[in-house]
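REVIEWER CHECKLIST
Item 1: Sequence provided? yes
Item 2: Single chain? yes
Item 3: Sequence as submitted:
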Amino acid sequence: MKKIAIIGKEDVDSLAWHIEYTLEKMNFNAKIFEPSGGVEKKFLNKNIQFYLTKLSTKYEESTYHRLVRQVVEYKADLIIVILRSIPPYVIEKLKEELEIKIIFWTGDAFINLERGYALVSNYDAWFVKDTYMERFMKDKLNLNVYLIPECCNPDFHRPPKNIKFASQHEVVIAGTLYPYRAKILEQLLEKFQIEIYGALPKWMNKKWKEVHTGKYILLEEKSKVFYSSKINLNTLHYGEVDAGNCRLFEVAGSGGFQICDRKEEIANYFEENKEIVCFDTIDELIEKIEYYLKHQDEAEIIANNAHK
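Item 4: Structure as written out by the authors:
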């Protein structure tokens, strides 16, 4: 059985986690390797370990030396790198030790590539979700890059049983409360009943903590929330130049109705007003939320079309 090493986060519902899950389902032997580990793992959380690699060259070298050793001992036949922070010398060492192909696969926007290590590392292929990234990396950098949009996992993101469509929530947004997202929501809070799911940033003040559910939803629980919401609001980060996010497909897979930022790329996956509803301005967003809260029969048809 072919062995595939995935260098990424072990967290449930992460991109690396879903890749490992799917590869195992395809009868590959897949395993996630995370740079954080060793003795420090017992005493330091992942964030502290991450910043230590940025501040200390010796700590960085010891961390990645351990990672290389673990992947080599696994005797991988292919390596998929999800983490954007892996230094080029790590990729060179892995190639030297194993003489195999190594792929970089990101579900992030271009602006999140940090130091840009992924652009100068000796990968055999790059998988990106943004058509702008694909063009830039292919035309300017002459890289072997492929467009692979994000997706849902139909084993988890599917309409739940024994729950009625749009029966439990009014307007739901799931994801980290970035400042730009918070500013959009700020203009909606007085008009609609909004529930926020996801990570709680430290900058959030009392106002946001009062409307935040305090929950981070995963897998089937995520599908239940999406399906039972009248409206799932999907605000795309401005760094997503020509791309959608995973939520775009997870909501559709779960059978939920969503209103999303309008981007040209979305038209490659969904037909507007038949499978998804989009907006350009805050006024347009408010108008469409008000409309579809009153016309849930139309919202359900659109949600069913998106699911199909």
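Item 5: Key structural point noted by reviewer: The chain has a mean pLDDT of 91.
Item 6: Recommendation: ____
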